[in-house]
């Protein structure tokens, strides 16, 4: 028995100059620091810590995902010290990209274990050297932004959709793609005539270039009220279910998908709309966000047609009938479970059933969104947090808050006010207004069990068998 702990670097390191240079410093320091330690062996491609076969540090930084191991109750091999030291050194050069975790405390690593194993296997062989054809290729990954301030996307025609955003480089999950302030905002609860009048006033305040950008946006509702048609086609809500929408020079060109690879998030503190990758996006792939509110395909397509004026033919909606039927059933289950979990009386009086529904919903989301539920996880884990905190269960609430926080980091960023709020709840769950209304599951936040296997920990967390 033991606790699996370590750190990941998020987003993962690139082949770019900055990451390579900083990693060389980390690698050199660790190599020199342990040169007289017979439990540490420097090999051509990596540094091996003999206490655990997977505790390796690669020479090629872009292969690194995780440095971690299962620490036994009696840590005679000094695993904890090795991990803590390497983590501190990495933090000196990579700062907040270093994410420490400890499954014994209910905090899991960022990357999937299969991906970690695959990356470790790649340490044995050096990659074939690449000959860059452009400077941008030379600083591949996150470095184009750092080195040259190059956007990760380009606006270009997309077949059947008009203009759209397409990735210029590989984009890591959790990476900020674009942050943009709106031309202006407008309410969606006023008449088209009022919108026309309001926008005509707002447009006069904009520079000529911005006015041209606004008029270049697509209008799916041509007619006598062109301003409101452009707004209706392109506005994004300034926050979940907000009646206020923003119109953006670039973000408004991002097209919809029912299986999106990005998430749009409004930051009320900065007044900017942010787009984050919710999964890996390959260079040349279109960047998409969801315009819909869920539900089966007929509901989604009807909403998209009425609200935005187009017929959705995304990878979900264009599936063969049998596959689409299965997807629709999963979407109905998602709607049903979401409603059940949100039933306040049920949360109060049947918390165990609500927590089971959260677990079931997680599994369906993973299946329907092909392993990348994205922003859905932020709400699901927060719902689970609330179920537990009502019952005074600070231990489980802390774990669920941590998971919600990590999900928000990946799709909304650390500076989003909601991310910061969840972080505070993670640090002190009992500050939530609903804490201890019933106290059926009373526990302290430091009573998260240690030394459990991953399966055992999940059973504890979801109260399996209770």
Automatic annotation (TrEMBL):
SUPFAM superfamilies: SET domain
InterPro entries: SET_dom (IPR001214), SET_dom_sf (IPR046341), SET_domain_protein (IPR053185), TPR-like_helical_dom_sf (IPR011990)
SET domain sequence ranges: 151-292
Protein name (record): SET domain-containing protein
Domain of life, source organism: Eukaryota
């Amino acid at each position: 028995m033991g606790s699996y702990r370590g750190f990941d670097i998020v987003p993962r390191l690139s082949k770019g100059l900055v990451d390579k240079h900083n990693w060389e410093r980390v690698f050199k320091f660790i190599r020199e620091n342990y040169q007289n330690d017979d439990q540490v062996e420097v090999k051509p491609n990596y540094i091996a810590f003999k206490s655990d076969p997977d505790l390796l540090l690669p020479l090629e930084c872009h292969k690194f995902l995780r440095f971690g191991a299962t620490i036994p109750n009696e840590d005679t091999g000094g695993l904890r010290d090795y991990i803590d030291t390497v983590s501190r050194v990495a933090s000196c050069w990579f700062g907040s990209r270093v994410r420490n975790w400890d499954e014994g405390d209910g905090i899991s690593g960022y990357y999937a274990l299969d991906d970690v194993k695959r990356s470790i296997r790649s340490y044995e062989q050096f990659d074939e050297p690449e000959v860059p054809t452009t400077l941008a290729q030379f600083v591949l990954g996150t470095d184009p932004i750092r080195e040259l301030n190059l956007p990760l996307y380009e606006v270009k025609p997309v077949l059947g959709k008009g203009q759209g955003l397409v990735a210029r480089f590989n984009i890591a999950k959790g990476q900020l793609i674009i942050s943009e302030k709106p031309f202006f905002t407008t309410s969606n609860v006023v008449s088209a005539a009022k919108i026309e009048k309001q926008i005509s006033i707002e447009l006069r305040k904009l520079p000529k270039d911005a006015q041209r950008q606004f008029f270049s946006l697509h209008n799916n509702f041509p007619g006598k009220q062109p301003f409101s048609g452009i707004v209706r086609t392109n506005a994004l809500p300034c926050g979940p279910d907000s009646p206020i929408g923003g119109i953006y020079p670039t973000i408004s060109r991002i097209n919809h998908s029912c299986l999106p690879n990005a998430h749009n998030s409004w930051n009320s503190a900065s007044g900017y709309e942010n787009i984050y990758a919710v999964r890996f996006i390959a260079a040349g792939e279109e960047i998409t966000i969801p315009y819909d509110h869920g539900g089966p395909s007929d509901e989604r397509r009807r909403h998209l047609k009425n609200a935005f004026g187009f017929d959705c033919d995304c990878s979900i909606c264009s599936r063969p009938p049998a596959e689409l039927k299965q997807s629709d059933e999963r979407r109905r289950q998602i709607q049903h479970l979401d409603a059940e979990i949100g039933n306040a009386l049920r949360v109060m009086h049947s918390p165990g059933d609500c927590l089971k529904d959260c677990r079931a919903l997680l599994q369906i989301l993973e299946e329907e969104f092909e392993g990348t539920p994205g922003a859905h996880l932020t709400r699901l884990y927060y719902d689970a947090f609330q179920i537990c905190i009502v019952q005074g269960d600070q231990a489980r609430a802390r774990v669920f808050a941590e998971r919600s926080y990590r999900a928000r980091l990946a799709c909304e960023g650390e500076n989003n006010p909601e991310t910061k709020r969840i972080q505070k709840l993670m640090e002190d769950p009992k500050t939530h207004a609903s804490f201890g209304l019933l106290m059926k599951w009373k526990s302290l936040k430091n009573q998260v069990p240690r030394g459990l296997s991953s399966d055992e920990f999940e059973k504890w967390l979801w109260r399996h068998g209770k």
